[in-house]
Amino acid sequence: MNTHFSFKKMTLTLLLLTFGLGEVDAILTKTKRHIKGEMPKLKNKNNQDGVDLSTTATDNFKIGDELILSYRYSDPDGDEDDSTTTVRWSAIFDSKNGSNEIEIDQSRITNKSANSTGNGESKLKITSQIEKASNFKVSITATSKSGDPHLGKSFVINDIFKNPYGDSISNKIEKNLSLRGSIAGIYDSEDKSFSKNLINEEEQIKVGRTYVFRLWSGADKNVDLTSKVKYEWRLLGQSASDNITTPPEGFKTKIFNRDFIVPNNEEAKKITNSKDGAQGFNLAVDWK
Q1: 147: burial class by Cβ within 10 Å (0-12, 13-18, 19+)?
Q2: Fewest C-beta in 10 Å: which of 4, 38, 221, 269?
Q3: Is the whole-model pTM more than 0.70?
Q4: Domain locations along the chain
Q5: How far apart are CA 111 and CA 165, in angstroms?
């Protein structure tokens, strides 16, 4: 065997390994898109996408009662819940000029994120500032503290008594709360469109004419709440000429829950003890 040739061959091989392979850089390849998880989800008690509403009130809202939004949080990637940071509560106030929405300060709201041992919650405590609201609005977005995506579906509930995403506040509470923001009206029976509320209008009330009482859910008059209350027509103020004055609650006509025909002198005197009958007095309604 030619040892000289073998030595040269070995030397050449070492040179190739040393210099040839040393010139080859490591190559790093990557996917076009990054790793992505699942979006967080909020579930109602029926395990559907949504949230539930409840309250500690038993019949009518009072100071100290709470409105509660609750949900079960779901994120298969393991990202923690941060949804309550997106909660916004608003109070709706009705007036003769329409509805007014006021966002409630976060200091009045108590939030608790969901975890492995419990559901997420947002609690709004009823205070004197919002006790007379006619309704409430609340919104929340499924949100995680980490991951991609970290935002999920948003839920906007414009009416706490009609939650399309889960349980609503009970109808028993709805009746009482709705009456608080309601608007009363007295109308001439000929005013079929209820366009002139005689509580505010200067139109003269006349003997012999028929008048109608209505109670509306708000200034838009979308919902007639009259059937939900009991009412009595009263005469209030002072007679036209003989200075007969009513007590603060007015003279009771004993006409309940129906239209009122202003009586002539003979009939009205039985109520007012005035020779003017009903003349001079204001027409009023006591309702509850």
Answers
A1: middle
A2: 4
A3: no
A4: 41-157, 183-287
A5: 19
The Cα 12–Cα 8 span in angstroms is: 6
The mean pLDDT value for 18-30 works out to 68
Map residue 90 onto helix, strand or coil: strand
Q: CATH 2.60.40: does it fit domain 41-157? A: yes
Name 32's Cβ contacts closer than 8 Å, sequence gap at least 6.
none
Distant-in-sequence, close-in-space partners of 58: CB < 8 Å, separation ≥ 6: none
Average pLDDT of the chain to the nearest whole number: 88
Per-residue model confidence as pLDDT tens digits over 133-169: 888 999 999 999 999 999 999 999 999 999 999 999 9
Q: Say how far apart CA 177 and CA 91 lie, in whole Å.
A: 12
Phi, psi of 162 (to 5 degrees): -135, 70
pLDDT in tens, 77-111: 999 999 999 999 999 987 656 678 999 998 889 99
Q: Before 149, cis peptide (omega within 30)?
A: yes
φ, ψ of residue 150 to 5 degrees: the values are -105, -5
The whole-angstrom separation of Cα 60 and Cα 134 is 12
